[in-house]
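so my prof wants the structure for this chain in the tokens format not the other one, which i didnt know existed until like an hour ago. anyway here's the sequence
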Amino acid sequence: MKEIIAQPLHFNKEKVESAFKKLDQNHVYQASQMVYYPYYYFRYNVQAKRLFLPANEKVGCAVDAVSGKGSLIDSQPKLKQFTVQESELLHQKQSLDDCLEKSESFLYRSLSLKMKMLSISKVQVEEKQFFYRPYWIVYNQNGEKGAVDFIVDGVSGQYHPLAS
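here's what i got, hopefully its the right format
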């Protein structure tokens, strides 16, 4: 067993299986395994020049601690402490320093492209947090050739097919 900081599960096993049953009554889907995926969260204070908008803004960035890919996030993740099985944890491959560097690079690119900032005068990291996000591995129990399995985000409910 291991103590971790993670986002609380919003979609439990029953909700996930029920949603797949409503979606496809011809197949049986089982949410048989939970995995916790590692991320780093960084909150920045950004000072920039923009037309008609405030110059100071708080911007959040999450970096996947396995691949190092970044994404802007709308709000700070709500986190709690949990005790989980070690076997449920995916292990990080990226260090805090690597992810901080990647988040800053990603942030500059994103701010200039998506948020239409004319010039960025200062970007300062205000918070750093390592955390896990829960995902369900959902298997198609029919065992048919070409049957699709899924990964389901336990926080948002978004799902993606898994390659066979």
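also thought this was worth mentioning. Residues 2-162 form one domain.
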